[in-house]
Amino acid sequence: MTELDDQKMGNRTRNKKRLIMVALMMLFLAPVVAGWLWKPDSFRNRGNLIEPPVALTNVSMATVARGVIDFNEIFGKWTYVLLLENQCLAECQQVIDGIERARISLGKNEKRVRLLVITFNPDDLVVVSGLVNKVPKLMVLAAGKAEQEILTKQFKINGPGASGFLGQIYLVDPRGNLMMSYPLESDPKDLHKDMGRLLRASRIG
């Protein structure tokens, strides 16, 4: 074997070693690269995280069935909160129906989630409470003037929303922390996906 042949063989050996090293590097780096470049849509929050979460102040509000109830009495479940300025007409009812569908679609976990409507017009309490006939698990409360001021500040309401609501769809955790919000026109499937992940990750509520 000539010196030239030895050199060619040496080059082939070095190239082969380099290829093996590159292959090994790709093998170990692939998951890291994938993590940076590929973010599955299924792991993206549909709602807007409120950071830091807002610990809600306890306020007393009126109900049809039980008289006055403290806000902190309803904590203990994941709660969607809607703040209602006027009577709940057709568009308002569509929003409520959508949230209720998202809740029911959670299957056995639906009992860990509730839907709360707070009306800012106590005179409408009886009328709004009639929604329970269509959505049996719905809870309806009425806030007086002083309570409205507290809620407006805590939920950071800047003005009327749509469909008779104030602000957006809000999500409160079982410890009474306001942690997420959603546009009123949100797809119920998006609420379902976020809530499903929260319930799988959390043992509270």
Description:
By secondary structure, the chain is of the alpha/beta class. The protein folds into two domains: about 5-40; about 45-200, 3-Layer(aba) Sandwich (Glutaredoxin), CATH 3.40.30. The chain is about 40% helix and about 20% strand. The protein is built from five helices and eight strands, in the order H-E-E-E-E-H-E-H-E-H-E-E-H. It has helices at about 5-35, 90-105, 125-130, 145-155, 190-200; strands at about 50-55, 60, 70, 80-85, 115-120, 140, 165-170, 175-180. A hairpin with a 5-residue loop joins strand 2 and strand 3 (about 70). Helix 2 (about 90-105) packs parallel to helix 5. The chain starts with a helix and ends with a helix. The relative contact order is 0.18.
Features:
Glutaredoxin, 6-stranded mixed β-sheet, globular, alpha/beta, 205 residues
Per the CATH scheme, the topology name of the largest domain is Glutaredoxin
Strand order of the largest sheet: 1-8-7-4-5-6
Counted by DSSP, the helix tally is: 5
Strand content: 15-25%
Ends distance = 78 Å
Question: What's the quick description here?
Answer:
With 205 residues, the protein is an alpha/beta fold.
Q: Topology, pairings included?
A:
Elements: H1 3-37, E1 48-55, E2 60-62, E3 68-70, E4 78-84, H2 90-104, E5 113-119, H3 125-129, E6 139-142, H4 145-154, E7 165-172, E8 177-182, H5 188-201
Parallel strand pairs: 4-5, 5-6
Antiparallel strand pairs: 1-8, 2-3, 4-7, 7-8
Helix pairs in contact: 2-5
